[in-house]
Amino acid sequence: MQIVVTLDCVDTEAQAGFWLAALAPLDYRRGFDGPPYLSLVGPAPAPTLLLQQVPEPKQGKNRMHLDLDLGAEDLAGEAARLERIGARTLSCEQHERGFRWIVLADPEGNEFCVFATPPGGVPMK
Length: 125
Hints:
Layout: E1 4-9, H1 12-22, E2 29-34, E3 37-41, E4 48-53, E5 66-68, H2 75-84, E6 88-89, E7 94-96, E8 99-105, E9 111-116
Pfam family, one: Glyoxalase_6
Protein name: VOC family protein
InterPro entries: Glyas_Bleomycin-R_OHBP_Dase, Glyoxalase_6
């Protein structure tokens, strides 16, 4: 069994560059590349991120988004790293039930979050 998360994008190459840099702490790499698809794969059992080229730019809010635990306790520092590679921060750090997160957008405007689990808490998996 495998989970593949598909992300529509106008420029798959540019998005691959961003997402590979964003996911570097999780050891993602390029996988299948056959237009209109380009896959980014992590170590098993990590889901595959499939970039699908579409002609239209993103419009409106995502109905689904990625939540990334990149192992950073300093979420502001992680958001700054992501901004340096092309992300845009959409919210300040938020807290709920011990979880902390920051909402960002990739270079094409797709929302995602970086988060940290509560100290000593149960990870999401």
